Amino acid sequence: MPAVGVDEDVVAWRRHLHRHPEISFEERETSAWIADRLAGFALVVERPTETSVVARYDTGKPGPTVALRADIDALPIHEESGVPFASERPGAMHACGHDGHTAMLLGAASQLTARELPGGELRFIFQHGEELAPGGARDMVAAGVMEGVDFVYGCHLWTPLEYGKVAAMPGPFMAAADFFKLTITGRGGHAGLPHTAVDTIACAAELVGSLQHIVSRRIDPLHPAVVTVGSLHAGDAPNVIPGEAVLTGTTRSFDADVRGRIPMLIEEIARGVCAAHGASFELDFQFGYKPVVNDERATQLVREVIDPGELVELEPIMGGDDFSAFGAEAPGCYAFVGAGGQFPHHHPRFAIDERALAIGTRLHVQVALRALEVFA
Predict the structure, then answer these.
(1) 7, 130, 131, 295: which one is catalytic?
(2) What is this structure's pTM?
(3) pLDDT of 197-207, one tens digit each?
(4) What is the DSSP secondary structure assignment for residue 93, as one 8-state letter?
(5) Of 104, 125, 153, 315, which one is least surrounded by beta carbons within 10 A?
(6) Rounded average pLDDT over 19-41
C-alpha cells in the first residue's frame, strides 16, 4: 500500500504517466501534464524545448542554485506487464522507470515549495528524450537550463537493486553510449544460384561474429567495453538473396581512447569482411552520451543524507544516461534507488516496487536541502 500524504500523490502520478506513455521527443501530452502539476506549486514554469519542462523556485535570498533532474520519456515497447494501470498507448511503455522518476521529482517539488528555504534557487528539470541518442539533455543545456547551477542531482529507479537500498558512487558510474548503423551492399539474386549474386546475409552473419573480436582481442581487457549488434534486417523471401543488409548496434566504454578507437575498428573489420565477400559497406557511427562520472564532493554530499542501512556499494554499469550532459556543466551525482523487480529494464513485463517512490522522493528533498547549505 502506498504511504499517506504526498506519497499517495506520487503513486497516483506515476500510474497516470504509466497509462499514458510517450516515446522520446514526442512527450507533448506528458510535458503539458507536468507543467500543469507544477503550476499549482507556486513555481515559475518554463518550456526550454517543445517537450521538456523546467520549474524554478527562487527564494529571493542569496545562495546557490541547486538542480534536480528527472527524465520523462517512454520506450517503443508493447507492454505485457498485466498491471491494472498498463499503457493505453499500443507500442509505447514506461519500461525503464521514467514515470517513477517524474512522479518523484513532482513530489519533491511539492514538498520543497511548501517550506521556507535558507536561500538560493531550486531548479526542477524534467528532461525529454533520454532514451534516444543524442538525447534531450544537450538540447536543454543549450537552452540555458544549467546556467548558474552550482550542483545537480538525479536518480534512477534500478530493479536489479533490491528495494530499500541506494547506491551513490563517486567517479565513473555509467558508460558512454554510442550507436552505429552498418549498411552492406551486395548483388541480389536467386537463392538457387548463389554464384551469380553477392550474398549480403552471409556477409552480415560473418560480420556479427567478427565485431565481437573488438572487445576480446583489440581492446585492453583492463578497459571495459561492449559492442552489441541489436538488429539485422535483410531480405523478404526464402528464395531470394537480398542486395542489402543493415546492422544496427551500440557500443559502450569508459575510457576516452577506447571510445575513439571503437568506430575505427568497426570500420576496419567491416572493410575486410565485406571485401572478402565482394560486398561494399557504409558505416554511420553516432557518438551518443558521454560517461556519467559522479563528482566526488557532490557524491559525498548525497551519501551523507542516505540512511546508513540503505547505502550500498555498486560497481559501474555499462548502461548509459545523458545525465552526463548536466554533470559536465556543474558538480553532480547520479544515484540508483533500489526498486527490485523480476524483469529487467526495457522488458515488456518490466515493473517496479512502488515503495521505492517514497525513498526517491525523500532523497530529492534531503539532497536539495543539504546542497543549499553545502554550496552556499
Answers:
(1) 130
(2) 0.93
(3) 999 999 999 99
(4) B
(5) 315
(6) 97
